[in-house]
Design goal:
6 strands; alpha+beta; GTP binding; single chain; 35% helix; six-stranded mixed sheet; zinc ion binding; 163 residues
Length: 163
């Protein structure tokens, strides 16, 4: 097998280099170049984090944009490298729904609440010749104060989609 194929697959599934216990440590690091749109009342929105993952059912890529929001917990340092967290989690065999929940749950541990929306394009329908080849799948997850507040969720959606 050519070395570049091996290198490609190693990069594609590089998320497995991190043990689950190490993932929360990514949030302690300083952020590196994330496009943060901070909003009043402690709401922070990262409106466009691109990701690539692999469907665990078909071993084909899916890709898209993660939109992440959280409420700052004034008793802790704000989460660090959210973009890196999204990248690491997406570089594993995944279902989009699970990926959305994983990002949200990890952020919830360092914030007063988290909101995550993933938009995903799958190659599975295209390869299978289905007519829905241009379908974009959207998943959401909420934790903490976002779960009980329609107003917070609406603010998140408005800010996340503006970018």
């Amino acid at each position: 097998m050519p070395r570049r194929v091996v290198n490609f697959w190693e990069r594609l599934f590089s998320g497995y280099r991190y043990a689950n216990e190490e993932l929360s440590q990514l949030l302690l690091r300083e952020a590196s170049g994330s496009s943060v749109q901070a909003v009043e009342d402690g709401l922070v929105v990262l409106p466009k984090i691109h990701y690539v993952s692999s469907c665990e059912n078909h071993l084909l890529p899916f890709f898209g944009v993660a939109r992440v929001g959280y409420l700052i917990n004034r008793d802790q340092d704000p989460p660090g490298d959210v973009s890196k967290l999204v990248d690491v989690l997406s570089r594993r065999l995944q279902h989009q729904e699970r990926l959305t929940e994983q990002i949200c749950n990890l952020l919830d541990g360092r914030t007063e609440g988290a909101a995550v929306m993933l938009e995903g394009n799958y190659l599975c329908p295209l390869v299978q010749g289905r007519n829905d080849r241009k379908a974009i799948f959207e998943t959401t997850a909420f934790a903490g104060k976002f779960k009980g507040s329609t107003e917070l969720r609406d603010r998140f959606f408005t800010l996340a989609r503006q970018a």
